[in-house]
Every structure is written in structure tokens, then in C-alpha cells.
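Recall the central idea of this unit: under ordinary conditions, the amino acid sequence of a chain determines the structure it adopts. In this exercise we apply that idea directly, starting from the sequence alone.
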Amino acid sequence: MRKILVFILTIIMAMGVCSTFTACNSGGNTEETVTVTDMVGDTRTIKKNPSKVACSRSTYDLLVAFGLADKIDGVDKKLLDNPWTAVFYPESVNHYRYEYEDSYETYLSRGVDLVFCPEKRIADDLTAHGINAISVNLYGTPTFDHRLTFFSELITKIWDGDDVKQKSDVWNTKIRQAVSEIQSTLTENNVPKEKLFYVRGDKDKGIGYTDTKGSFVEYAYRVLGFDSMSAILETNSNRPSAESICEYNPDVFVMGGIYQNKHVTDIKTTAPYTTLDSVKNNRIYTIPMGLTQMEQLNALSPEFFYDQANRLHPTLFNYNVSGMLKTSVKEYFGTDLTDEQIGYMLNGLSPNGGNLY
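Accordingly, the structure predicted from this sequence is:
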């Protein structure tokens, strides 16, 4: 019996030595890393090809569109609350519902290996607790001009598959082409710049709720030939007074988000906005809804530019946006939308034609 025990112990020790030897020869931790710079300029070294990612609202749909849905653990619950999300991508119901700013304990308990954060302070806090986190937002310094394909290109640095790279390159080409076409047409026709005010409608904070300098929205409407009030608003000043808006005297208003149709009604009946020529002349426009608000950078951003060009410059542009949306949603999400659903999208409505709020 003693000889048998000695033999067993010898085998176990040999296995331990072998395992130790293997670990030493492989460097112990075989996970490959990559060093990237995020959208606020912070350099982070993170796991390459992560398999369990937590997404912010502005990062989810491009990951799905680029074929990385199986790498997503969850997303900000507000995106999952949007009924269009389940229409575009039915499997989204299986993703975990994160808070906008969830605790580091939650990410640790779920074994997440990368978090895309909407703010630097959130990424910094998670990093301090040993969680891979990088900042991705909709703002650039001093402008968003050089950020148009930043996240798309960042994805290909984190995930190095050929298919991801190919899809990213195609999307990059599409959005750059949209911007180039619109700018060239406006320049060729010497279109004078008018003033625009964008009403941010993801929350019902009234007509004065907007976006600020350096935002994607400010960049987009500059591409579309307008001077936006957002360009003169500093960070944390996205609630200008009604008096300052009237003093700016925008030639057009553009309403976005789930409350856009409510805000269209509100501005026509709310003083002092009713005194403005843009309101009297009904120069009030809306933005389509999708899985992501279309005025946020997303898989359908090329269609966003084409749609707004049609609405804001109807004598110059007549893009088949409905056809484009059908094609892109099928390509990126594998879903066939009906003509009726496309109409609801274009009018900022729910998949059933009702209000989204």
C-alpha cells in the first residue's frame, strides 16, 4: 500500500512540475493585449479580441453591424428599452441590461473583459478597479471632424479578424462618400449658410435642450451647410434660455429623439418661440428613429446624412433613403423591414406607428 501511495504522489508532483514548466515556457498568461488610444486621448492596454463586452448606447449597433454581436454581454438598458432594437436585432433580448453608470462589482461578477464607457470619469473609475475600460463618446476636441471613423477603426484594432476589417472599411467608405457628396453639391450651388437649432429629444427637457460644441450633431449640420447654435455652446451649457435662442433667431429647427413629434407640437404653441419666422413658416424638421437615435453616430449614419440633406435642401437632393435603409438594415442586422416600418422610422415613430415615449 505504501508503494502505491508513493507512486501516486510521484505522478501528481510530476504533473505539477510539467504544468509549471508549461506555464513558464508560455509566459504564464497567454492572453494577447493591444494598446489603444480612446476618444478622450487616454492610452489603455486591454485584452485583444475580448469575448465579453459591455456597451454604451453609442457603441452597440456598430459592433452588431460588424459581426461582433456574440462578443457582447450587455448594453445600457435605455437602448434595450427602444422597441426598434428588438426589431432590428431580435437576439438583443438576450443581452444584459446595464445601468448608464453601473458598479464595478457588477462588471466583475459578470466576468466582463472590456467596457465601452460614455464618459472618461466612468472609464477611469473602472480602470482603477482593474477592469478594462475605454471612453467612446460623441464629442471631439475641438471639433468632431477627425472623429467620424474613429470608433469604426478602433474596433479593428481591438478585434483583428479579416471580416471585421472588411465591414469596417465598407462602412467607412459609405459615410465618407455621403459627407463628400453633400458638401460638393452645396459648394457647387453656392448655398448660403443659414442658422439652425437642434432640439435633443432623448429626454423631454423642452425646446432648449440641445448639444454643444464639438459634438457629432454640430459637425453633421455643418456638413449639411448650416451654422448650428451648438457650435457656440461650451460643454455643460446645453440648456440655453428661450431668450438666447430667440436672439440667435435660427432659420430652421430640427427635432430629434423619441420626443421629437411632441416638441414639434410644443414649439408651435409655446412663447416666445411662436414669434420666430422659422416657426411661423413651419421650417421645423425631424430625424428618423432607428436602433440608435439617427443623430448619434451609428451603423445608419450615412442614411442620416442623406435623409437630412433631402429634408433641409429639397430642391438639391432626392436620395432614395427608404431603399437605402432597407438595404443597410438587411446587410448589418439580417432583418427585412416592411415599407410600413420604414415609414414609421422616417417619421420618428415606434414599430407599430405610435409614439416612442
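Confidence is low (pLDDT under 50) at residues 1-29.
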